[in-house]
Amino acid sequence: MQMVYLPDLLFLIETEQNDDYVRDVGVQLGYDHMQIVSPQGLSGGLVVLWKNFFSVSCISFDSRLVDLQVDYKAFQFYLSCVYGHPIPSQRNHLWEKLQRIATTRHGPWMMCGDFNEILSNAEKRGGRIRAESSFRNFRLMLQVCDMQDLNYKDNMFSWVGNTRDGIVECCLDRVMANSEWRQAFPASETEFLEIAESDHRPLIIYIEYEERRKRGQFRYDKRLAQEEDFVDTVKNFWHHKCSHVQDLRVQLRLCRTEMAKWKRRNRLNPAEDIQIIRAELDRAIRDPRVAAWQIRKLRTDLNKAYYNE
């Protein structure tokens, strides 16, 4: 994910690794700074990583919360990276802590992470119906903290588990912000990616002042030179179509367009392969009829596609 989306700030949950290992991986991924929360025994562990052009200060941290102050594009806001307790009876300690923070916190504020909780039975597919009273404490925390979900795209049912009651899907992971934050960045949104290596969907947060029109960017893939048909196509186009054009810049632009057409016709884009395999893996994980060996094979295919990319 890091190589495809290049996030400026990255929050990882359940690292389950010692601090030195986490620090080495963070440096390899190109992050200059990080706040590490060590795992407790063989479970847990959090890390927030960010790049040098961010100004981030850590206000507090523990095994469930990393609370930060961030300077981003001349805009300062609070960021709470959350990991809700997997045991329901223990979650309210974190909700109460966030409510205490809210009593003295003024300014734009965002929360993100795995809350391990949902707002209603509508955020759950499969399994037993929960009592309405079980959602009360989580709802109260969001009300006191003035939190609402950012706009999002794709599947918000971010966790899939194979339980005694069958396949269950829940909206456990989310990105929320208070009214001041949403007013400052009204075009921001969350993208839910496909489930792949984990039983949780990775989340990408796009922070935007206003809607921007995305433009495609041409990139030359050096492996295309190994395709004989590609080489012949480019040579023929250059000699017969571009030779009559005097401006070299125009020649190059026309040639780039022809290369892009060839790639679309022959579908050699490893990024597309990654998306297709991730989608297949996402469906397989949620289908109880799919065997474990089939899921392992899809994960192997996905690793190969990442290697090619």
From TrEMBL:
Pfam families: Exo_endo_phos. It comes from the Eukaryota. GO terms for molecular function: catalytic activity. Residues 5-200 form the Endonuclease/exonuclease/phosphatase domain. This is Endonuclease/exonuclease/phosphatase domain-containing protein.
